[in-house]
Specification:
Distance between the termini: 36 Å
Number of helices: 2
Order of helices and strands: HHEE
Shape: elongated
Radius of gyration: 12 Å
Structural class: alpha+beta
């Protein structure tokens, strides 16, 4: 998988749209963020929802 494909796994919802669906605005409900640089691909637990994908209330 290329770096671009890896990062494409990140959510693409607008913050307001994610909140309206009850999802975390930072990760779009995925619970993680995907980052890559120079072929090193990492999954980082979302710091906002702490990995559960739910919006804070």
């Amino acid at each position: 998988m290329t770096d671009e494909q890896w990062e494409a796994q990140n959510g693409n919802l607008a913050p307001d749209e994610a909140r309206a669906k009850g999802l975390c605005w930072h990760c779009s409900g995925k619970g993680a963020n995907y980052t890559a640089f120079g072929g090193v691909q990492r999954t980082v637990r979302c710091p906002e929802c702490r990995g559960n994908g739910k919006a804070k209330r």
